[in-house]
């Protein structure tokens, strides 16, 4: 089962962070069709957020056809976003972990690592377009 976390410094609304975490878990194959999401009550207790925030996230995911609520039973994944090629690229994940380790050894904190990655990612994407 997925365990949600929130980053108050991200600038992304809590409900959208939850939506993105579910999508990412679906994309990476960490959540599969039939898996149950945590109850709204459990998410509220764990993250100390408003129940309406969790409900909004779940409604959006349901609208996208990714999950379905079964009254009295729970909320379940109805379809996945996993890309078989992502699972096949374990070596890339290993290389990325090594890079992250080197970045931390160089004294970068999480925000700095994320900033470095995102600026490099965007620059590479712009080069690919040009």
From TrEMBL:
Supply one GO molecular-function term. DNA-binding transcription factor activity
PROSITE patterns reported in the protein's UniProt record: HTH_GNTR
Which Gene3D superfamilies is this protein grouped with? Winged helix-like DNA-binding domain superfamily/Winged helix DNA-binding domain
Q: Which UniProt keywords apply?
A: DNA-binding, Transcription, Transcription regulation
Per its UniProt record, what InterPro entries does this chain match? Tscrpt_reg_HTH_GntR (IPR000524), WH-like_DNA-bd_sf (IPR036388), WH_DNA-bd_sf (IPR036390)
Q: Name one Pfam family in it.
A: GntR
Which residue intervals define the domain HTH gntR-type in the entry?
12-80
Q: In its UniProt entry, what is this protein called?
A: GntR family transcriptional regulator
